[in-house]
Amino acid sequence: MMEYSFAAASISGCSPKEDARPLAHFHSDVWGDRFLNYISPPEDTQQERRQELKRLKEEVRKKLLAPTDDPKERIIYIDAIEQLGVAYHFEEEIEAILQQFYNKYSERDCLYKNDLHYVALTFRILRQHGFFMSSGKILLVEFILGG
Asked: If you average pLDDT over residues 96-118, what whole number do you get?
């Protein structure tokens, strides 16, 4: 195998120096070598960020678990948390709230039946979390007929 590579080099008549590819001279990047020369922030800065993260997570958890008279607010808040992509931090709390909501929803027949956005949002969130919900034909007819 070694002879083959040597023979190929001698057939082409090029030495390794001549075989080098030409360099392209691209314009300098707007970012420079910012991402090539990354230096992590000092340990105290990282510690401050961790503390801030903990504080913010507890703040969201408190608001999520705070008692509220309006279940609509809580469903909208859960939707916002999921859209922001941080719901994985609060999976247990969200599941408990949705289970509680599902049990109450089943008892009441139709909660906020005059608000199509809320009915659709509730349907989507409960279905995404694995709760059985009717396809909404009855709810939609009640919404259209106004009652």
From this structure: 74
- Which pair of structure tokens corresponds to residue 91? 């999976």
Domain 45-146 CATH class label: mainly alpha
Domain ranges, ordered by start, for the chain: 45-146
Which is nearest to 17 in space by CA: 9, 8, 25?
9
CB 133 within 8 A of CB 127: yes
Report the b/e string of 66-95 with b at 16+ CB within 10 A.
eeeeebbebbbbbbebbeeeebeebeebbe
- Find tokens 């509220």 and name the residue: 68
What is the C-alpha to C-alpha distance for residues 24 and 87, in angstroms, rounded to an integer? 46
The pLDDT of residue 108 is above 50: yes
What HEC string does 57-101 produce? HHHHHHHHHCCCCCHHHHHHHHHHHHHHCCHHHHHHHHHHHHHHH
**Helix/strand/coil for 79:** helix
Distance CA 59, CA 47 (A): 18
The span from the CA of 49 to the CA of 39, in Å, is 16
pTM (2 d.p.): 0.63
